[in-house]
Design brief:
globular; 2 domains; 38% helix; 7-stranded mixed beta sheet; Aspartate Aminotransferase, domain 2; 377 residues; Aspartate Aminotransferase, domain 1; alpha/beta; 15% strand; 15 helices; 5-stranded mixed beta sheet
Length: 377
Amino acid sequence: MKIESLCLHALRDVSQNKGAVSVPIYQTATFSRSAVGEGSGYDYSRVQNPTREHAERLIAILENGTEGLAFSSGMAAIAAMMELFSPGDEIITSEDLYGGSLRYFDLISEKNGLKIRRINTSNLSAVEKSITEKTRGIFIESPTNPMMNITDIAGVKRIIGERPIILMADNTFLSPYFCRPITLGADIVIHSGTKYLGGHNDTLAGFLVTANSELGEKLKLIQKTTGAVLSPFDAFLIIRGIKTLPLRMEKSQDNAFKIAAWLKQHARVKKVYYAGLPDHPDLEVSKRQGTGFGGMLSFSVDSSETAERVLSRLNLILFAESLGGTESLMTYPFTQTHSYIPEEERIARGIDRKLLRLSVGIEDPDDLIEDLANALS
């Protein structure tokens, strides 16, 4: 089946659910046994729950992986994944990442004895030069948050070769609908399921998908031991959201193309960052490793005063953190998602007071453009 059908029918088994078309919510903490050695296969919902299991198996299928693991948030998923590493290990990360990931690496991973090295992973030569005998992991986003940089995933995998280095790819921005990093060589795919997978700005979730069962079994042990698992009800919401993932991704992308083109010709807009634009330096890499460019874009305006005025004048578009939902959201990375990073470092990376990030939703594009025009006037 193609992914549009897989999102709906990948795990269809209505006989198991007494004919229910929607997956039941097993809202229970524990499961009884009839005798020693006899039971349903479930014991305790921290270890496994039928609703969560369905969500995990579904995302694994969509990502062409072997094991899927569902967590209470995207950051909980990253925290569990980083338990794969030991003190003294070196981890290479993209220098442009979601601020919460950077904060975790700096405040938690380094405290736990890991050495974090930030580089421009779009530059494969820089990746190769950064690898040492102690490197055990490479963590990338593609596109990055918020500057929309692209990393050649297959290229990084070729550089790794047979070395014992785990390639971790955050696929939140594109979802498995537009990109499947495991097919390009990633060992682990990360999702903030809060975003496009859920798609309705109404639940928190995180996922890991592994390329092999060995990594999957290690992460399952970490998952049940640390315990930040996805609840049955939130798993149900994610399953429901995935049913419309292809429709939402296509609509968001169509809107994003139109808005990016409109922004590029506006006098107050100085630069537009969108992976699908003809002038994006890594457009060909994006085309090679995915089937689309998503609904995320950023743009810089002529002054900080203009940026703040835009945020105060928006009407249809909501000034809020997060992304990937049905509603369009505008975020101010300088004071929101990336406020943790020292100001000098933020500005050096282009995350200044003039940068705005837009998660394009599924509204009518003309209405969105009208809202932006009024805000920029």
